[in-house]
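We now fix the convention by which a protein and its fold are recorded. Here is one such record, which you should read through line by line:

>
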Amino acid sequence: MGSLFDDRIGADVRMQMVANLQIPASDKSAKHFDSPPETLSATGLASCVTQLRTAALFDVLALNGKMKAQNFLAKDPTEWNDDPSYQELKTAASKMKVASDTAERAIVLMQQYNSSLTKNEEQKQYLIRLVERHRKQYPTGAKSTLLNTGSEH
């Protein structure tokens, strides 16, 4: 998706990306390969843009993003930079943060969650001890465990 807004990508590759957006999704999942994927070159980049994978992402970038994308996708890629819709979506895409893997995203989410609970270090430590005590008391999160141990207390 970001490659549509990357000035280093040539007009010919962008035109192929636009063409790929028009191809209806096939029954075959895009996640399955018949053979190992080749190293991605600039021209191979166009194959990553498909109706199934890409079109909905325009709406993630902006309200009515698909409609806005149609404004510049109908033009020659050399004219995209002058299109207000292209500029809006490009700005939105450049502001998106990309996490390279699940662990990194989990760490960021936990840091955000942790800082949203309290800024007071003493309170954070109390919450950590409380969660630890709860996990010892209820080792599994199963409903049956909670119901059985809840009646004993």
Q: What stands out?
A: Residues 28-36 have pLDDT under 50 and may be disordered. Residues 102-152 form one domain.
